Amino acid sequence: MSPIQQILQRRAAEDSALLLHIASEKPSASDLAAWGRITLKRARRMLWVVKVLGRALLTKLTSRHLSYDEIDIIASGLNKLTGTDTDRVKLVDDFCEQAAKVLPHELEQHVKQTVATLTAHRNHPRLAFNKTADANNHLYFQGAGPAELVAAVETELVATANALRTDNMKFSEAMFHALVRKVLHPSGKTTDPFLPYRNCYVIVLDPTLRYHADGKVMTTTGALVDVKDLVNQELQPYGYAVAYALSTGGDYEHVGTYGVQRFFNQHQRFVGSLEHPICAYPGCDRPAKTCQAHHVQAAALGGPTLLSNYAPLCAVHNGQNDDDPSKPPKNGRIEFDPATRVPGLRRFPGDPLRYNLNPVTIKGIRRYLAYLRGEGYAASFRD
């Protein structure tokens, strides 16, 4: 056992014993913060955990050698059952058995599912708004509802947000504007309000090529290509272009506006969710339909907006991803398995890919085919 493992195991045992002593001595949050050199927030959280569990349950949890994080997860679950006739002792026994077999994030999922089952009859959708603005004149609101309904709302907002988003706009800001658009101006229009203010570049295409009225262009080799593809090559450094051509009367007329696709469209996201049903990050269970569409090769580094470069990542893990492989690694980055094209996390260069082994992932088309062939990551699902 390495020194790190020894220290972590000893610390886990001491943390659970510490909670038991807090239950006996009842220190204040400020004293606890000063003695332990921890933040007041953490001290208050520890006192809250002790209050929720009580001495009897803490004694049971301490005897099972659970870590502080595991005890915190269990306390959060039990707190949601306040006022019910649930047998808390029996439930804690069940949680302890699970904790001995799984990792903390899997225990958290089990606790959430158990609590959801026990409280399904008394949970109702809700939405609340704060009445007082903060220093920036912002009001806050929050709500809760059935997961399927909230996911559908989020998916609808994501589509509008992608249409409204500009290069310098954060996705969360675009989501707010999308909500305002849907509620206050439910016209269904997704025209970019910032389009009139973008820079415009005039690009002269090769006059030696033959341009047809159906949008095809004959190259010097005799091949026919779509004018959109030709224009996209020219406008790649700029983002979009407006095309003009000579009319039969000899005047210039607008024939189309073309742009390099920066965001995955709804069709690509739909097909992508069939291949990858949940967030590609190991241990995450966020459904793909509510994830952000991640460019495995970053768009800023020339990555194309194609399904071959798509992986769903939730907002948290997409924000953590090391997009630029040339920079020193911080959190790791999502990469494709070269054989199966299944996305996985490479923590450091040279490390093996770690995959999301949630059973739901095997439902994805690409992974199920890999499973049938017994390739790479998918072989871990076999009995």
From TrEMBL:
Residues 324-337 have a biased composition (Basic and acidic residues). Residues 318-337 are annotated as: Disordered. InterPro entries: HNH_nuc. This is HNH nuclease domain-containing protein. It comes from Corynebacterium matruchotii ATCC 14266. The lineage of its organism: Bacteria, Bacillati, Actinomycetota, Actinomycetes, Mycobacteriales.
